[in-house]
Amino acid sequence: MNHKGLTIVELIGAIVILGISLSLLTLLISFVINANDQTSINASANQIGTLAIRTITTSLEDLDANAYLTSITDNEISLLKEYEYAYDEEQQKIILDVYDLPIIYDLSIQDGDLNINGDLFDFNIFTLSNDSSLTYYESNQTLYIDIVLILVASNLENSYTFNMTYSMDINDIPQV
User: Fold this and answer.
1) 112 Cβ neighbours under 8 A, 6+ residues apart
2) Is the per-residue pLDDT at 133 higher than 90?
3) What are phi and psi of 142, to 5 degrees?
4) Torsion sign (Cα): 111, 117, 122, 126
5) Nearby residues of 3 by Cβ (< 8 Å), 6 or more positions away
């Protein structure tokens, strides 16, 4: 038999093949979108975590503390700058400048918040895990501060850990 056109079986076969192709394409697109979302979340976590660590490091280096106070609570420390050496233009020499009141810099991790000298750090789409920590110890006139920040994505599926160690010399005010 010579027929012009399609039979119902051929038409149904073409529709089934087209349906399978479209469902596979939709599945592939879904995987690509999910992978893109995950990559975006990973990049954001890396950016925000690195910014938090860099903010802490920069502010500690700028302070150049020479003493510290411990706290009765965990995950909290106050750093002090009691003196500094400064160049005196009039005397043309470096002098010891002792502060009447020391400069105090507070750093704490409490209740899912990172407090950097009174300012709460904004983690954007992430929350700071309660497992994050700030610990410190002194050895040979050097204070070591270890900070572990654990960021949890808003979907609660992934966590991202950032570590830093900062050390500073502990010195009494020099006698002149």
Assistant:
1) 127, 128, 129, 130
2) yes
3) -125, 130
4) negative
5) none
pLDDT band at residue 46, thresholds of 50, 70 and 90?
A: very high
This prediction has a pTM of 0.78
Distances (CA, A) of 17 to 6, 37, 41, 105, 137: 15, 30, 36, 68, 68
Q: CB-hemisphere CA count at 13 Å for 125? A: 16
CB atoms within 10 A of CB 107: 23
Q: Which of 3-7, 21-25, 95-99 has the lowest mean pLDDT?
A: 3-7
> Averaged over 59-87, what is the pLDDT?
90
Encoding tokens for residue 164? Answer: 């830093």
Average pLDDT, the chain: 89
**26 by DSSP, 3-state: which?**
helix
Side chain identity at 127, as an amino acid letter?
A: T
- The total number of residues shown for the chain amounts to 176
User: Which two three-digit tokens encode residue 111?
Assistant: 């209740």
- At 2, the pLDDT band (50, 70, 90 cuts) reads low
Full DSSP string of 54-79? HHHHHHHHHHT--EEEE-SSTTEEEE
157 DSSP assignment: S
Give the H or E element holding residue 53.
helix 8-63
